[in-house]
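Lab channel / #folding
Pinned by the channel admin:
"Please post every new chain as: sequence first, then the structure tokens as a reply. Keep commentary short and put observations after the output so the thread stays searchable."

First post following the new format, from NK:
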Amino acid sequence: MISGPQMYLQRGMSMIEMMVALTIGMVMMGGLIAAVVASQNTHRLTSDIGLLQENGRYALDIMSESIQMAGHWGGVEAENITLHSNIADLEDGDGSCTESWIVSVATSVQGYEGGSTAPLNCISSSEYRSQTDMLVVRYASTFGMKKAAPGSASDDNFYLRSNVSTYEAEVFRDKESSSTSVTESDTTYSYPYTTELYYVSPCQTSDCSEDPDIPTLYRLAISGTKFKSEPLVSGVENLQLEYGWDSTGDNMADTYGDASAVTDWDDVRSVRVALVTRSLEKDSAAEAQTSYSIGSYMGSGSQTVDVSSADQHYRRKIYTRVIQLRNRG
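Reply from TO:
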């Protein structure tokens, strides 16, 4: 037992010392928290920018592949293509997207200028983002091409059967066909018949159940005997198109304009695509954009797009590309 004067030498921390220690600890903890938050914000910003770039490039790549294939009919010109009687098995889409419109091989690419309502009424008002353009392309796809005779397919899809030697082709439903009018030889092949309609929807899901709504690039395409919609790329907010056509007869695009300026779609040689992607979530640190310009390089001049208050504080990026039609001329 310690007694006498020495017992007064055993002391704990004073209140002042404890307060100083707590203050230092809180300052250090605050700095650590600030560093973690800054790191998270940087990671989120980097992810948002990366997603903007990925979505924009992916959307352009998908559309580029389709546009470049437009008018490919297995080495045969459109005027030499016939339609099998079982084309009637293809169900009409809604509104103007009828069976005859879907298999209109004479027009392999066609654009529709955007407005307050969808320029094609097979897209409902709830599925269409106003003032965005639409594009339809038709072609025989090389993915899934085959040599096998008609009637051998286990799927329920439509094909184009072509013979480059006899210069003839026919669109038919493979599962229901034992033969076509096309001469069978070593140069006869079947290609999946493709019609694709690209448009922008205000929602990611068909019933717009997400909150907030996420604008999405959609595509209507043939699946079996139906013309079905499918979401392609989330975050695509705007799509603007212009077309380059040959006005001098040299098979080169020398004049550009929007869909309303095209008088003959057979003369179109290229498509200018401008699309806008936006982040999937709001960012309070992002500029509160009330408008932005798109398509300043286009023949029709720059377009100013107003942004509603609900759509502000999103990060955006504009992507453009000129895509050549390989199967023209």
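NK: The longest helix spans residues 15-69.
TO: also worth noting, The two ends are 109 Å apart (CA to CA).
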